[in-house]
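> @MW can you paste both from yesterday?
MW: sure, first one:
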Amino acid sequence: MSTNIVLTNQKGGVGKTTTTSAIACSLVERRNTKVLAIDLDPQGNLGFSLGLDIENSSTIYEVLNGEVPLREAIQPTEYCDVITSNILLSRAELEFTGTGRESLLKKALEPVKDFYDYIIIDTPPALNVLTVNAYTVANHLIIPMVPEILSLLAVTQIKETIDSVKSTFNPDLNVLGILLTKYNGRTILAREVSEMAENIARQIGTKVFQTQIRASVSVAEAPAHGESIFDYAPQSNPSQDYKKFVEEIAPDIHLQ
């Protein structure tokens, strides 16, 4: 059965998509595992950043509304399999209103849960029905955040949603930790927010990862080339940091 890892933070621009891509690509490249990456963000950045056409293919929106079986929406890339999204997914909050709407993704993933070793899910910068669907199917949550006050506040607001999902849909949901991204340890603000993040982590029963993802322009450039950060800038700080991060979480996600 697959291990499902969800990247979440209701604050945008914190590195969710980059981290989703980096984890998925690293697992495949270094561990020869079967990985499916799913984009639950209507912006569609995950599929685009891995070189896919997000406007002329079946997406997770068609899967969740029952138009297309999940297997038909899976697209192979040179890195991993991907289910893309696009702006149509922004209709989800208004359209997915029936009983069981929180478990649409869980139901859709049933046919492939034993085929993939890992399913990595990118979520929108919001706490909505898409986020709840991701939490419902997740084994682990990873919370990327930049060392800024507004990003920190967004993390504190996630706790209520996590507690709600654990009490109703997924009692085994585990918050793996908080990942600091775009990190510059030379700034006073970064160090201060890191300390505050430790306090927030304790409140939600988790930790701040030891690995920090350093800032680099290569992270912004790689998606334009449809390449992973590891191929586009293998010697960059983020590339090295993400490799180290996957090693850090390996014991927790049962990675051999």
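MW: second:
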Amino acid sequence: MKRRNKVLALSLAAAMTVTGLAGCGGSGGGKGGGDPKAALTVAIWDNGQQKGLQEICNAFTEATGIQAQVQVIEWNSYWTLLEAGASGGDMPDVFWMHSNEAVKYMSNDILLDITDQVAKSEVLEMDKFPEDLKQMYQWEGKTYALPKDMDTIAVWYNKTLFDDAGIPYPDGSWTWDEFYEIAQKLTKDDGSVYGFAANPSNEQDTWMNIVYTMGGCVLNDQGMSGFDDPKTIEAMEFVDKMVHTVMPPASTMSETGTDVLFGSGKVAMITQGSWMVAGFKDNEYIAEHAAVARLPKDAATGRSVSLYNGLGWAASKNTKNPEGAYKLIEWFTTKDMQQKQAELGVTMAAYEGVSDQWVNNTDKFDLTPYLEAMDDVVFRPSTRSTLAWWNPMVEELKKPWNGEEDMATACANITAIMNEKIAEEK
């Protein structure tokens, strides 16, 4: 999962200091000591998941007597506060870890090493989790986080706009070329409605799926940039065509999230990750007007590829309650709590087979396309220092999005940037 619910939960994140974030947990623990009953602070960045995760934490408290309070911090503030906490010694006890940041935190000895506890656990079934996700949160033979969830991508479409245009709903049979043709028909000349919307930073939930479906790659088999692959360039030029013909102006999309544009009826289709469902089902407009379909296919291969990712549950090395922090991480990762997460509609589970329960968490949408997407998935590309090339890649893609350079030039520039940054990792 990626991110990034930009709505602050309550006013907590806006005003929270690093000391406040640490709350009843914070620094001063370590692997061998601490108060085994000290209350735990749990930091996440998605307010749509807070209610369900707090319910799971309440069950943990009933079972162990250890209090655990979920706090929501907006995506950008989350990493700023976490980094400041790592430097100053005050961090939340338990928190989400992301593939973009994992190596930095693991390699700098910031996270609690839970290798031995996982190996000795009598309740974990680690063979039921995707190998990519497990390896993502391991460093030099040690385990520092356990999989929280996994996610896939699907198309969300506005049924009312399709009905008004007399266009049949998506059913998973479309190719990307057909998707584009439909988006053209749904785009109105007066700018009141656009067929599709995507930002350069919406990589996992938009353009990377197109790249891999069309046979390209972001990282090649040698672990270097795939932006010089002719298939990647072809796919990105297809994206560029959509940007300039069926999407709102780039400035509009950068100022207003694509989910917000969709939720206001300005955009007929978006592609979104399964992590957005919790928020969408509480949005009155989307609940009334929207439905879900599988991502389009490639005309030549018939493949419909979805990127997938997954968060990890990690703990601060300096938590005052290392025993309790591990117990909570273990609790989140058991089959029962993974299933409960799915049933509550928090998000899809990482544990094999229990996400069927997630599909049934709401009657507002048929979420089956998200499970169908698991038939052909690619793990979200990352390296040891993903952000070192990811951020410049996004900045470079803004140029063709804004009409400042052609996409082929952008791909060439991204290739050079990525290869330089990745070479520095070795």
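> thanks! Residues 407-425 form the longest helix (19 residues).
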